[in-house]
Amino acid sequence: MLRRTPTLLSKHVNPPTTAPIAGNSKPPIQPFHPSHLLRYVYEPRPDPINCTTLFPTREFATDPSHPLHIRTKRKLAAFDPDNFHWRVQCPVDVSKRAFVRSWAAKRVGKVLRGKIGAALGRRQGDGLVLRGGEGGGGLEGARDAAAAAEREGWIGALLVILTKDKISLTASDAEVRQSVEWLLERVREKQGQEGGRQTQKQRAGHAVKVPSSSRGRNIMVSKAGTSAAPTPPRTAKEIVKTEVGLAPSRPRDR
To answer: Disordered: where is this region (predicted)?
Structure first.
């Protein structure tokens, strides 16, 4: 059997079999980023029907003939925008099995609840909404939760959405924790921006609160937010003259 003698061009004509083939090379693994796992929708000043409202609740509220219409309307009427409302949603594309989607949502919700539950001073079960007045706290519990939420800055409505990818199921606990921390930082930034806009509106005179000590006085609030000097009260003679001047004149009887 004759052996082929290698030449200078043999390595170019017949490349070695150990070289990687371009078509079968695997793409480089991208480093994990929190946005690969979670998306979110945040409303700093939510309405009763907001991003966290479930679709059946919307249907019940808009259908007067539904048996749960009255109960739903009462629930929406008791909505408190100063509390923190949140919900975790897992798309159907992640898994067709409901219990798998529920497990993925609860895993993220558990970490999220651990981050914000202590700030609100209360913890819920596996319900995806955390707000004051629920869980047997009564009126005092609702006030305490609302005060804690306002003090910590956790107000508004937050909808957390898992991405439509298998990473929603395969992500490690550390990656879930990192994603939740990243998400809450983004929400904090939006809350700070909203607070800055509210402060600018107050300075511009759009929403100026008159102190309780000045109630009952005739105080004019300017657009710049500064109050002018109170007008002195009118005497009885001035009031009578004003009422007489404004009264319509009656025709004389002839």
So the answer is: 1-28, 189-235
Structure tokens belonging to residue 10: 């043999």
First to last CA, the chain: 148
CA distance 180 to 110: 10
The percent of residues above 90 in pLDDT, for the chain, comes to 36
**pLDDT-based confidence at 14, cuts 50/70/90?**
low
Angle between helices 98-120 and 173-204 (to 10 degrees): 50
The domain locations on the chain are: 37-204
Q: What is the pLDDT of residues 98-133, one digit of tens each?
A: 999 999 999 999 998 888 765 554 434 333 344 433
Show the tokens assigned to 199: 């402060």
Which of 27, 81, 15 is CA-nearest to residue 49? 81
Q: 91 pLDDT exceeds 90?
A: yes
- Inter-CA distances, 210 with 185, 213, 217, 225, Å: 34, 8, 10, 10
For 192, the token pair is 């700070």
CA distance linking residue 84 with residue 232, whole number of Å: 45
φ and ψ of 179, to 5 deg: -65, -40
